[in-house]
Amino acid sequence: MEAANTTDLSDRVITTFDWKSLLPLWVFLAVWFGQFFLALAPNWSDGTYYDYGFLAPPLAAMFFAGRWGEMTSGMAPKDIIGSFSGSLRSPAVWLTGLAGILFTVFLRLMQTVDSSWRAPLYLHWIVVWGTTGILFVKALGLKRSISLIPIAIVTLLSVPLPSSLEFSLVHGLTEKVMETSVGLNRFMGFPLTMSGETIFANGIPLQVSEGCSGIRSFQSSIFAAFVIGEFLRLHWLSRLVMIGAGAAFAFIGNSARVVYLVRHAFKHGEENLQKLHDISGYVSLTITLAAIIGLGLLIDKLQPKPKSA
Questions:
Q1: Residue 128 and residue 126: Cα distance in Å, rounded?
Q2: For a surface tag, which of 53, 104, 190, 258 has the fewest beta carbons within 10 Å of its beta carbon?
Q3: Residues sharing a CB contact under 8 Å with residue 255, sequence separation 6 or more, in sequence order
């Protein structure tokens, strides 16, 4: 009996320091994903639509740490180490890794020519996650490696949309925001005229395009909805509801913002209009994110919890 207790204690000690034996794996993942995030950084830092992307690296690391226990559940520390050691010695993994590195170098060279070209970024994501997926499937099996999918989606949502899709989305949102805000203001008795993407309120032109279209809040809301869904571990159907609701909240918030700015222009002219333009944008985004968090907490409360054994 005492010998059994000693063995259990020994296993716990090994488990406590298990992470050191997998240090090469952590270094590989940090470097492999670090260079991918560096390729995305110029698009995040230009201050237009995708600055929320800077949250992707720490969130991906946090979610990976949370999913690690699920992927290795029921496996002894020595088996985990042996699985990854065997995977790293596999010729298929080595060949895939070498091909991935060479292709990544080629993609990085393409990105230095034109950092705004989106196609190489999506290819970069495919290469990074394809290589990582093969490594984990080889080591842990497909069923356990499926836990990586939410982390892959978080990183995908930080990649800028293809230029053609972004252009269509911006103009589509601009048109809908203008129609909604003008219709509501006319219903409240404020006569407005439109010309192209400009609303004229009492002779004052209000340009509704680009950032005012809502694309920034639209993108960040979808990202936030998925992140909160993963943080709360919501059911996949609930996560889809969260994403749809996030997009709806962003549209409603941005439409309300334009309605407010039009009414201000009507009543007060151009006084503090530019200042209110920026402040209202932050207020709208904050309320939208708060609504998404609130919805997530509500769904989590209503979602049936698994019965404990």
A1: 6
A2: 190
A3: 177, 180, 181, 184, 214
Cα separations in angstroms, 101 against 17, 25, 46 = 31, 16, 27
Domain that holds residue 139: 2-156
Question: What angle (nearest 5°) sits at the alpha carbon of residue 67, between those of residues 63 and 70?
Answer: 170
Q: In terms of domains, do 172 and 102 share one?
A: no
Question: Residue 130 is encoded by which pair of tokens?
Answer: 């394809």
For position 207, what pLDDT does the model report?
66
pTM above 0.90, yes or no: no
Q: Which of 156, 175, 207 finishes a domain?
A: 156
Given a contact cutoff of 8 angstroms between Cβ atoms, the answer to whether 204 and 270 are in contact is yes
Residue 309 counted as domain residue: no
Instruction: Please choose, from the candidates 185, 184, 205, the residue with its C-alpha nearest in 3D space to the C-alpha of residue 194.
Output: 205
- Residue 210 pLDDT greater than 70, yes or no: no
**Predicted confidence (pLDDT) at residue 9 exceeds the cutoff of 70:** no
Instruction: Using alpha carbons only, give the angle 109, 114, 117 rounded to the nearest 5 degrees.
Output: 105
User: Over 80: is that where the pLDDT of 171 sits?
Assistant: no
The residues facing 200 across adjacent strands are 193, 205
**Residues near 110 by beta carbon (within 8 Å), at least 6 away in sequence:** 117, 120
Paired residues of 205 in beta bridges: 200
Cβ 218 vs Cβ 234: under 8 Å: no
For the record, the structure tokens of 54 come out as: 């800077």
State the amino acid at position 300 in one-letter form: D
